[in-house]
């Protein structure tokens, strides 16, 4: 039987990054993946295809509605969905084969098939052809990720009742796309199909967007998205669906108990994802799970109750984000090599890739109030920012929350153009334990969007924002 220092089960951002880092540190590593292509949910059906479609639909929307303001007129702007999907597939294929290259470069042995525990140190791989092979590992990392949660009354058929896996591969623009769940997937894929011409209605149980994040920032994002045509039905339950020819009827109930129906041609169910442990044999060898079905690990050590078995990424607690999974992979590989691997969960950025984008690190105002932490607030709109003006993209604002006494950053919330890139400086500031004044006194190139962060930090520090 082939013996390894480390066996990784699952080749998503958590698993493949852990494998690369462990190999860099001299470990003999095997990676088991049931999908033919590497990269997991993120590269195959998640982050990358959704961003490729967001970028394409943004370009289309820009050509149709925004370039006129720049004095550029294009007549007869058309969309070719087939070509758009082919481009998306090409991007996916390039990045997934990039992971193949990384496996070869780092001499990581790849196994194709479903991995399941035979014992605490042995994993069996069952290929599509039924062939079974067993390998042994000193340490084993579970990085099996997640899959969409389904609603029992909404049986997914991949045609009218769909998940994100299908919503990134539709062959035509739906007339009316009904989305259940105004989370990250609902907003991003809702934006894609809305820009391409669909009517989009989003039914959400909660009274607002983004759960516990900053409420005013979520409200601002909501108003901008509503202006773009997304129709939110908050505090509304979905009761069931009924096929009506090629259409589908969704019965809903608002908070007053009033029932009504929405008629659409596709229903996207995006109410969160569940950890993927089907067929893994984890329970059978005694691995413990949390109440919410995730694999239980020692915080920041990623160790399960079985000492040589570890878990990272979507399958354990914490936000289901690719960069969180990657950083856990790096930290764990370093810990297994005797180094001091660590993830600073309070410095993890969140990004929602709508336009404008929404991004944040740290606490929102409500969380600070709930914890009795005294804070000060600095704000800066993108409207007076010269670069945003030059781009004609001035919707949004930056909000900085800092400790009232020490000035240490507690939360930064951005709604604005390229917030996804802007948030990187904030994440670094959090890693360094920076104050609002640290950002305010750092030179930011002019004219850039990042100056809006500096101005908001000046405002938080001692109300000395120059350009407001
Ligand atoms: P996964 O990426 O899910 O990988 C797990 C892998 O394990 C899969 O390839 C699976 O096939 C394999 N596997 C499972 N069980 C077995 C087994 N028993 N044997 C062998 N292989 C197995 N996050 C972001 O940070 N930014 C984004 O922009 C973003 N966009 C997203 C858009 C969509 C539409 C979706 C669905 C998700 C998005 N996410 C995004 C979330 C992100 O994809 C996940 O957080 C991330 O992929 C988790 O990484 P992981 O390695 O834990 O698991
Ligand atoms: P989500 O957790 O972001 O949002 C789910 C939403 O559905 C919540 O607002 C919830 O209140 C609502 N909901 C739950 N049950 C409902 C019901 N029965 N009826 C109506 N609403 C209901 O989950 P989503 O959007 O499915 O995404 C899954 C994961 O993928 C997220 O955890 C996210 O982290 C990740 N992701 C990250 C992205 C990013 O970082 N840009 C992009 C897309 C996904």
TrEMBL record:
Cofactor note: Binds 1 FAD per subunit.
EC number: 1.8.1.4
GO CC, one annotated term: cytoplasm
GO BP annotation list: 2-oxoglutarate metabolic process
SUPFAM superfamilies: FAD/NAD(P)-binding domain (SSF51905), FAD/NAD-linked reductases, dimerisation (C-terminal) domain (SSF55424)
Residue ranges occupied by any FAD/NAD(P)-binding domain in the UniProt entry: 4-329
Binding-site list for NAD(+): 181-188, 204, 272
Signal peptide: none
Cofactor(s) the protein requires to work: FAD
InterPro entries attached to this UniProt entry: Class-I_Pyr_Nuc-Dis_Oxidored, FAD/NAD-bd_sf, FAD/NAD-binding_dom, FAD/NAD-linked_Rdtase_dimer_sf, Lipoamide_DH, Pyr_nuc-diS_OxRdtase, Pyr_nucl-diS_OxRdtase_dimer, Pyr_OxRdtase_I_AS
Catalytic residues identified in the record: 446
Cysteine pairs bridged by disulfides in the record: 42-47
Enzyme class: oxidoreductase
Residues in Pyridine nucleotide-disulphide oxidoreductase dimerisation domain copies: 348-457
Binding site for FAD: 51, 115, 144-146, 314, 320-323
Keywords: Disulfide bond, FAD, Flavoprotein, NAD, Nucleotide-binding, Oxidoreductase, Redox-active center
Molecular functions (GO terms): dihydrolipoyl dehydrogenase (NADH) activity; flavin adenine dinucleotide binding
Catalyzed reaction equations: N(6)-[(R)-dihydrolipoyl]-L-lysyl-[protein] + NAD(+) = N(6)-[(R)-lipoyl]-L-lysyl-[protein] + NADH + H(+)
Any single Pfam family the record assigns to this protein: Pyr_redox_dim
Protein family (similarity comment): Belongs to the class-I pyridine nucleotide-disulfide oxidoreductase family.
NCBIfam families associated with the record: lipoamide_DH
Protein name, as recorded: Dihydrolipoyl dehydrogenase
Gene name in the database record: lpdA
